[in-house]
Write a structure and sequence with these properties.
α3 runs parallel beside α4. A seven-stranded parallel sheet has the order 3-2-1-4-5-6-7, sandwiched between helices. The chain is about 40% helix and about 15% strand. It is of the alpha/beta class and about 280 residues long.
């Protein structure tokens, strides 16, 4: 769906540098409604032998160029490490050189390290790093970008997860971090509502991304099954019966960024085919 009120607004989407990810789907959906887009990701060179490659600067530039050409919007690709305040400050400086105001912030960057592992065997450094990337980064990026949103109504959408509501096994750091993102979203909504900034979270379940395929591969290795078997078993837990495409997430984010949701803030919205049905 196209939201005409988004035309001419500017959105930052972290973790949006790979076409196979949720971040790209968010950026593409917002661009289709006329949003200018900042593609923010690590921009690291490929690492030989790594099963899950990070976004490269070349990929980010290509995505920015395609979105600009396809949708007639202004775009900018910026490399940033969301765990590094200096890198975040440098990103803000670059954004300031191109855009004079930010209307939408999508805190989407995330990762898991050291999984699968139980709480007894989980490496402490990996546990802390996972929480840092998934939770502390939302605080860091938001604190840096909110001053650029002043003076006009704005929207922040944080990517949490179904794992922040329903605990998975052998992935405690990620679950704890995403539960933290949900509560951070609610506190931000209370604090920023008076400034005209709405803050909501999305809680994707199983979405067809590279990260999801990687996760199924890890589980298959851990449990002695196959990727196909793991995916089939997971689909049995989803009332709609299938793994969701990233565009489903992009559609919800565009709604939350638009005036269509102008009376919604502080919510954590499930996008999971019915897996999580809490009151």
């Amino acid at each position: 769906m196209i939201y005409n009120d988004l035309k001419g607004k500017t959105a930052i989407v972290t973790g949006s540098g790979k076409k196979t990810g949720i971040g790209y789907a968010i950026a593409e959906t917002l661009a289709a409604s006329g949003c200018n887009i900042v593609i923010a990701d690590l921009g690291k060179p490929p690492v030989a032998g790594e099963p899950l490659q990070l976004a490269t600067s070349e990929e980010m530039d290509a995505i920015a160029g395609e979105l600009a050409a396809d949708h007639g919007v202004k775009t900018l690709a910026v490399a940033v490490d969301v765990a590094d305040n200096k890198a975040i400050s440098a990103m803000v400086e670059k954004i300031n050189g191109v855009f004079d105001h930010i209307d939408i912030l999508c805190n989407n960057a995330g990762a898991s390290f050291g999984v699968p592992n139980s709480i007894l065997s989980y490496n402490e450094a990996d546990w802390i790093r996972t929480v840092d990337i998934n939770l502390f980064s939302v605080f860091r990026i938001s604190r840096a970008i909110i001053p650029l949103m002043a003076g006009k109504p704005a929207a922040i959408i944080n990517t949490a997860s179904r794992a922040g509501k329903v605990p998975p096994i052998f992935n405690s750091a990620y679950a704890v971090a995403k539960a933290g993102v949900i509560m951070l979203t609610k506190t931000m909504a209370k604090e920023l509502g008076g400034n005209g900034i709405r803050v909501n979270a999305i809680c994707p379940g199983q979405i067809a991304t590279d990260l999801e395929k990687w996760r199924f591969g890890l589980e298959a290795s851990f449990f002695g099954t196959t990727v196909e078997q793991q995916e089939k078993e997971m689909c049995k837990t989803i009332p709609l019966g299938y793994i969701g495409p990233p565009r489903e997430v992009g559609a919800v984010v565009a709604f939350l960024a638009s005036d269509a949701s102008h009376y919604i803030t502080g919510q954590a919205i499930n996008i999971d085919g019915g897996q999580c049905m809490e009151l």
